[in-house]
# Entry
Amino acid sequence: MHFFFHKGDEIGYLLSGRLQVKVEKAVYTLRSGDVIYLTSEMPAQWRNPGTTIARLLWIKVK
# Structure
């Protein structure tokens, strides 16, 4: 899995399911209703650790 970078900040809102998000060296487990905020300087990657579909609302902040 590769880290991704984007221009501008981003906000993710997990609508359902679970996601594991790795930001630099830290790993966070997101559950339904959780929010994550990433700046453009933060390398990040994510994966679904389960078999249930995860639905995520991703907002790009310029």
Q: What stands out?
A: The CA atoms of residues 25 and 44 lie 9 Å apart. The longest strand covers residues 9-16. The chain has a mean pLDDT of 89. The chain has no helices and six strands.
